[in-house]
Amino acid sequence: MYHGEYKTVGGKLVIVDFDIVNDQLTNVSVSGDFFLEPAEALEQINQAIEGLPVAVSQEILATAILDALDPWVEMIGFSPEAVAIAVRRGIDGV
User: Fold this and answer.
1) CB-CB contact of 82 with 1 (8 Å)
2) CATH number (domain holding residue 66)
3) What percent of the chain has pLDDT over 90?
4) Domain count, the chain
5) CA angle (66, 69, 71) in 5-degree steps
6) Enclosing domain of residue 85
């Protein structure tokens, strides 16, 4: 199990836990002390990351998350970029 964390400028913590199988991110679980409306959109974020290659860049991660979310979803206290940083930290062991 890999684990990455990132504390946003506003102080919210973003945590991402995942496995790597065949150089792909699997069993992705994003959590933290942020707010998301609707809360069900968290599954969209998890699915956006699921299956991406381990070599994925931070920019592509953030774009994949943003593209997966419906336009009315509100990410309060965090962003696609914050999730991407947490994923990369988990991959890179930071």
Assistant:
1) no
2) 3.30.390.50
3) 95
4) 1
5) 100
6) 2-92
What pTM was estimated for this model as a whole?
A: 0.96
The pLDDT tens digits of the residues spanning 51-61 come to: 999 999 999 99
Helix, strand or coil, per DSSP, at residue 9 = coil
60 phi/psi in degrees, rounded to 5: -70, -40
Distance (Å) of CA 12 to CA 4, 22, 56, 58, 79? 14, 32, 24, 19, 10
| Phi-psi category of residue 28: left, alpha or beta, with phi > 0 → left and psi -120 to 50 → alpha | beta
Hey, which residues does 30 pair with through a beta bridge? 16
Q: DSSP character for 73? A: -
In DSSP terms, 29 is beta-bridged to 17
